[in-house]
Amino acid sequence: MAPASGAGGRPAPEDVPAAGAPARPAGSPAPAAAGSARMPRWLPRAMLLALALYACFQLGSWAFHQLVGLLINILIAFFLALAIEPAVGRMAARGMRRGLATFLVFLTVAVVGIGFVVLLGSMLAGQIVEMVEDFPQYLDSLIHWINQTFHTELSRVEVQDSVLRSDWLRKYVQNSATGVLDVSATVLGGLFRLLTIFLFSFYFAADGPRLRRALCSVLPPHRQAEVLRAWEIAVDKTGGYLYSRGLMALCSGVAHYVLLEILGVPYAPALAVWVGLVSQFIPTIGTYLAGALPMLIAFTVNPWYALWVLAFVVVYQQFENYVLQPKLTARTVDIHPAVAFGSVVAGTALLGAVGALIAIPAVATLQAFLGAYVKRYDVTDDPRVHGHRRYGEAVVARLQQALQPGRRDQNAPAGDDDA
């Protein structure tokens, strides 16, 4: 029989628990519904932890983007220190302090670089002055050729007036005047970056043993040997890469020197050295910078000579990219030409010009280091491994067998004749 209820459907007094009465059993509906709506205790902590991790990620991403320029400078300085490590090590082995040896190496590099820049600057200034003085003659010869070819009646005075009164010249002068500050800021920024690279590379080279000891002090003994071996491999591969670049610079300089001497272009030795060094040690745009100056000097001799120089630069660049560079890189750095080309492309995509410059020694170091941990087996003596098998021989043998019915009849069983 159902329990009695009060008026209006309210529960009877005996259904309402008295004060201080024990709670209802766990199977009752009301307490179960209240427990399911309660927030778990671990959820607030999980939310705070997720927010903290997200904030740390955003902070780390912001700091990385702010310091990416400094990190790239440190990476360049590290590879520069690896490049001069053999020279500093030899001088230190003879009793000289590493700091003094590093200073002498950098001083030699700086003196050679400044002397080369001053020599090229004086040569370029003299050629620009000569071009400005001879510009009216070039303009007259060009106008005369246009008048004879297209049957026009142009004059130098009309051309000069039209150029001086043109809107594009006025806009160009205004933009050049407003861009002086930008150029100055760019130059100062480049000098500061160069100073930063040299400072870090000096510390890496002078304090190389101390840096290696500090790195090995936090590693177990078996890991220390691996780090030292990787460091030695990096020094060897970086030196080999610079050696290959030096050889390519020598080949490029000699080839362009021969061309410039044949054309009678002045300052041929200095221009050849410029082309060799700039085209090899300035990635991506080095080839265009190297070829622009000889073309400019050749134009002062004969405008057609500039076209000859341009054609030679383009042809030699293709020869260097597809023939000379892969072979020299494979011999000095000991990596496959296809791997070298792919590493340069990948380095350019990741870090631009810096990545193109350090991609080959970095990949060569990684390949040599990982090669020590790859287990190798003896290759079976199979002609297919050496490429001696002619894959068309099987097809020719089958055709010969099909075209000789007598041999098929001899090999066929006797019962086939009755059939």
Describe the structure.
It is a single chain. The protein is built from 17 helices and no strands. Among the domains are: 67-160 and 187-218, no CATH class; 226-374, no CATH class. Helix 2 crosses helix 3 (98-150). Mean pLDDT is 77; it is low at 1-7 and 415-419. The protein has 419 residues and is an all-alpha fold.
Helix content: over 70%
Radius of gyration: 39 Å
Low-confidence parts: 1-7, 415-419
User: Kindly state the mean pLDDT as a whole number?
Assistant: 77
Shape: extended
Compute the separation of the termini in Å. Answer: 101 Å
State the major sheet. none
The helix/strand class is mainly alpha
Number of strand elements: 0
Question: Helix count?
Answer: 17
What proportion of the residues form beta strands (DSSP E)?
under 5%
What is the H/E order? HHHHHHHHHHHHHHHHH
